[in-house]
């Protein structure tokens, strides 16, 4: 680990001012469960000059519910979200997604803001300096995503088709990073039509995760997540969060699916289905949602929706298996 300055911010305004002062060379630290590992392994293209601690800001860890819905402060802990009576009763999908993250120790430290802004877990990108890294990839000033030629079993299954014509001519510049979005919470929030409120704007969760070669969110370097807002969910909406992992505890999703179905006497009035860990951003399965609307939900509809959800996928050399897992999870989310 290299040396850096450390500032305890006492207000959001102070945190933003400090970020601006450092002109992109400072990072926010919340629970530190993602950031400290990345600093130790020296994975960033540029090591931050300073960390701005936001744990010292009072009152950012609330979970409040009213007739409009739920508001969660960016510093609310994942463990508190899991335990919250209102989340467990009315927003179970969020409680399930939060519970699926890591271990109790990590959930005790990790915050929802940090979970949404966490960095990707790609093993090329994260390869530690102390054991021979860094591996130069697109995120580190390289010309192409290392996953295209390397072991890509956990990488994106969407988006590869556009690149198929460049085969493995590594002299050409690649456009995309194939690391998948790691956040379980993100997938659930999009399924619940949540909004993310930052120090600059409020935007639907779906638009917050817009991956580029260098970042997984639209956050500017001087922008903070302040709050997450989830509208009151439709009465009787069937919510579900499912996650396929290789190990039971402490594992990121190989594929995850969040779903919210509104049914009336078995007929689907509305559906939101979101896939996680299949692309740099969570993927909304809009075609699958459309084919369900107005129909009685049964096993055939669930199978059809699952096919539609994965219709646009174009897996890499080693990750075709993820397509099948995703289909099973979508079917399971709809029909059990
Ligand atoms: C062993 C292990 C297993 C894990 N498994 C999972 C898993 O299965 N599913 C999953 O979803 N996650 C998993 N994680 C990731 C974990 O959820 C995140 O590390 C955690 O949620 C990050 O929260 P934090 O408060 O510790 O963030 P920090 O580590 O403090 O920050 C993470 C990033 O977010 C930025 N940031 C923090 N707060 C804000 C804010 N309010 N506004 C803007 N930027 C901010 C920081 O600058 C930093 O870049 C795992 C982590 C570990 C170490």
UniProtKB/TrEMBL annotation:
GO MF: FAD binding; oxidoreductase activity
Q: What is this protein called?
A: FAD binding domain-containing protein
Q: Name all FAD-binding PCMH-type domain ranges.
A: 1-235
Record PANTHER family: XANTHINE DEHYDROGENASE SUBUNIT C-RELATED
UniProt key word Ion transport: no
Q: Does the keyword DNA damage apply?
A: no
InterPro entries, per the entry: CO_DH_flav_C, CO_DH_flav_C_dom_sf, Diverse_Substr_Oxidored, FAD-bd_PCMH, FAD-bd_PCMH-like_sf, FAD-bd_PCMH_sub1, FAD-bd_PCMH_sub2, Mopterin_DH_FAD-bd
Kindly list the organism's lineage.
Answer: Bacteria, Pseudomonadati, Thermodesulfobacteriota, Desulfomonilia, Desulfomonilales
Supply the alphabetized keyword list.
FAD, Flavoprotein, Oxidoreductase
């Amino acid at each position: 680990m290299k040396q850096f300055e450390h500032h305890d911010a006492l207000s959001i305004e102070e945190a933003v001012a400090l970020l601006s002062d450092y002109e992109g060379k400072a990072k926010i630290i919340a629970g530190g469960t993602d950031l400290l590992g990345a600093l130790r392994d020296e994975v960033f293209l540029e090591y931050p000059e300073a960390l701005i601690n936001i744990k010292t800001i009072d009152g950012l860890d609330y979970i409040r519910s009213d007739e409009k819905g739920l508001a969660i402060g960016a510093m609310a802990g994942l463990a508190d979200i899991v335990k919250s009576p209102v989340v467990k009763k009315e927003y179970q999908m969020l409680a399930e997604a939060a519970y699926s993250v890591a271990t109790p120790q990590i959930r005790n430290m990790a915050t929802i803001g940090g979970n949404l802004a966490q960095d990707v877990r790609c093993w090329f990108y994260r390869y530690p300096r102390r054991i021979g890294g860094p591996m130069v990839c697109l995120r580190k000033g390289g010309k192409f995503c290392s996953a295209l030629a390397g072991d890509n079993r956990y990488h994106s299954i969407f988006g590869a088709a556009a690149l198929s014509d460049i085969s493995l001519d590594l002299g050409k510049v690649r456009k995309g990073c194939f690391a998948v979005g790691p956040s379980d919470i993100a997938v659930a929030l999009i399924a619940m039509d949540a909004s993310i409120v930052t120090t600059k704007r409020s935007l639907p969760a779906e638009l917050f995760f817009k991956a580029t070669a260098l970042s997984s969110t639209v956050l500017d370097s001087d922008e903070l997540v302040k709050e997450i807002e989830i509208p009151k969910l439709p009465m009787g909406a069937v919510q579900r969060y499912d996650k396929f992992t290789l190990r039971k505890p402490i594992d990121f999703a190989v594929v995850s699916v969040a779903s919210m179905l509104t049914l009336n006497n078995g007929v689907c009035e509305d559906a939101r289905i979101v896939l996680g860990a299949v692309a740099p951003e969570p993927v909304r399965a809009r075609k699958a949602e459309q084919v369900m609307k107005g129909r009685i939900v049964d096993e055939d509809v669930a199978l059809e929706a699952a096919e539609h959800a994965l219709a646009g996928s174009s897996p890499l050399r080693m990750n075709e298996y993820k397509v099948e897992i995703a289909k099973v999870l979508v079917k399971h989310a709809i029909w059990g």
